């Protein structure tokens, strides 16, 4: 077999066989197929798509490209959660300690920022010393001891996806349904949890912009998960505007901490409650979602979810004092308000543009090698449907470079549509897919 022939076959619209997909994934993982050929293949897949059979074969080939974790020596039903990626999506930072504090073991694998979206690992690194590069042994021990561990993709876990994820991030090949579904589900299958709750984003800040595509992606992933013997549920949630108010690594950590202290933004709290209640039911801790939501409200009220975050940060080498003193998190040198140019209502926010503002400020990667600036980003003050007066602050921008600040500010203002007519606020949760 030759990679050249496979690229041509896919480029011309013919489906790849399981053997061909295995050859390609094994070769790429072993470094025998170079990035430039794989980039061409990703672009061919982007335009030609993949059948259900091809997507399943790709998922299994990537899941099996390294170790498949066996979590059977961790007590209880292990639940994992994954988001398809969005702007201001700091859900795992608040949700996983909530669920762990409620007694469901969270064994989670997370990723870094991708395209215009942020990643949980980058955000968690705002805690000085924190590392997700932990061994399998430590991962399991931490889940058994404190009920929560988050690991990054090690060289041994779905290494094919790790390489491909970084490649797609810089070759404009992220937003393809089969590539997203196989990327997420290969990691989830390799990471070994018994149940998986997926947060599938929809809207201008998501990789899937149209609701019907998000539902299709959800169905595809739920089918892949259930087909591989893991109970999988998907929640489709709004990403037509950033989640909560904060966008940017340390700023989002601060907002997650506020949420665990009981003063989180309404939409963010609703999402944590929805995903968390499905996780508690799947983990056997609650008979139904109503009971689950009560348990989750209690762990916020009694402070145990915040303490769980501190315990988790410390167990993975981070400075837990930052959980109790978030004012010591990384800070940017320039903080400026972005003022509304007119009276009216925020009618629309082009959400991925807000993610790009954070990228421009240094909060994301331009190339595979870029280092990110944890302190920069934006805190919104007005969201879709809100009334504004000319001169009101739409957002506070946090930057370390004046030129980047000006660029991001201009882009931010172009992303907001302010008009005379009030608009209806859209619901956050758009639907649930269970099979
Ligand atoms: N998250 C992933 O893990 N992979 C993708 O392709 C997109 C979002």
Quick summary:
The protein is α/β, with parallel strands linked by helices and 435 residues long. The protein has helices spanning 3-11, 18-29, 35-48, 52-63, 91-101, 120-124, 136-146, 159-169, 177-191, 211-227, 249-260, 266-282, 289-301, 304-315, 321-324, 351-363, 402-415, and strands at 79-83, 106-109, 148-151, 195-202, 231-238, 246-247, 334-339, 344-349, 377-380, 387-388, 393-399, 416-419, 429-433. The radius of gyration is 21 Å and the shape is globular.
- How would you sum up the global shape? globular
Instruction: Profile the largest sheet.
Output: 4 strands, mixed
Small molecules in complex:
uracil
Roughly how many Å is the radius of gyration?
21 Å
* Major beta sheet, strand line-up: 1-4-5-13
Percent range for helical residues? 40-55%
Strand content: 5-15%
What count of helical segments does DSSP give? 17
Low-confidence stretches: none
Structural class, from helix and strand content?
A: alpha/beta
Mean pLDDT: 95
What is the first-to-last residue Cα distance? 37 Å
> What oligomeric arrangement do these chains adopt?
single chain
Order of helices and strands: HHHHEHEHHEHHEHEEHHHHHEEHEEEHEE
> How many strand segments?
13
What key phrases describe this protein's structure?
about 425 residues, alpha/beta, four-stranded mixed beta sheet, four-stranded antiparallel beta sheet, 17 helices, about 45% helix, globular, binds uracil
């Amino acid at each position: 077999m030759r990679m050249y022939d496979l690229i041509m076959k896919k480029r011309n619209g013919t489906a790849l066989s399981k053997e061909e997909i295995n050859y390609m994934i094994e070769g790429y993982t072993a470094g025998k197929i170079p990035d430039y050929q794989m980039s061409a293949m990703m672009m061919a897949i982007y335009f030609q798509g993949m059948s259900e059979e091809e997507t399943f074969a790709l998922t299994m080939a990537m899941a099996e490209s390294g170790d498949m974790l066996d979590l059977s020596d961790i007590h209880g039903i292990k639940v994992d959660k994954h988001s398809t990626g969005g702007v201001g999506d700091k859900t795992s930072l608040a949700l996983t300690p909530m669920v762990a504090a409620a007694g469901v073991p969270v064994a989670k694998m997370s990723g870094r920022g991708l395209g215009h979206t942020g990643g949980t690992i980058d955000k968690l690194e705002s805690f000085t010393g924190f590392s997700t590069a932990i061994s399998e042994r430590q991962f399991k021990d931490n889940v058994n001891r404190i009920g929560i561990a988050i690991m990054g993709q090690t060289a041994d876990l779905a290494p094919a996806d790790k390489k491909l994820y970084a490649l797609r991030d810089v070759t404009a090949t992220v937003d393809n349904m089969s590539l997203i579904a196989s990327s997420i589900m290969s990691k989830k299958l390799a990471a070994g949890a018994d149940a998986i709750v997926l947060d599938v984003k929809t809207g201008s800040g998501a990789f899937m912009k149209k609701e019907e595509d998000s539902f299709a992606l959800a169905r595809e992933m739920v089918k892949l998960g259930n087909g591989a013997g893991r109970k999988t549920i998907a929640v489709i949630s709004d990403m037509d505007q950033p989640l909560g108010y904060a966008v940017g690594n340390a700023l989002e950590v601060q907002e997650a901490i506020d949420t665990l202290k009981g003063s989180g933004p309404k939409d963010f709290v609703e999402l944590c409650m929805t995903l968390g209640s499905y996780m508690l039911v799947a983990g056997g801790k609650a008979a139904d979602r109503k009971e689950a939501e009560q348990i989750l409200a209690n762990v916020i009220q009694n402070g145990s979810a915040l303490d769980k975050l501190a315990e988790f940060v410390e167990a993975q080498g981070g400075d837990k004092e930052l959980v109790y003193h978030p004012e010591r998190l990384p800070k940017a040198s320039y903080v400026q308000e972005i003022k509304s140019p007119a009276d009216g209502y925020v009618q629309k926010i082009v959400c991925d543009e807000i993610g790009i503002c954070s990228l421009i400020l240094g909060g994301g990667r331009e190339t595979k090698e870029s280092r990110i600036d944890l302190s920069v980003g934006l805190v919104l003050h007005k969201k879709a449907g809100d009334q504004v007066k000319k001169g009101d602050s739409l957002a506070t921008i946090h930057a370390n470079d004046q030129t980047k600040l000006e660029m991001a500010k201009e882009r931010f203002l172009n992303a907001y549509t302010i008009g005379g007519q009030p608009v209806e606020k859209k619901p956050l949760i758009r639907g649930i897919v269970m099979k």
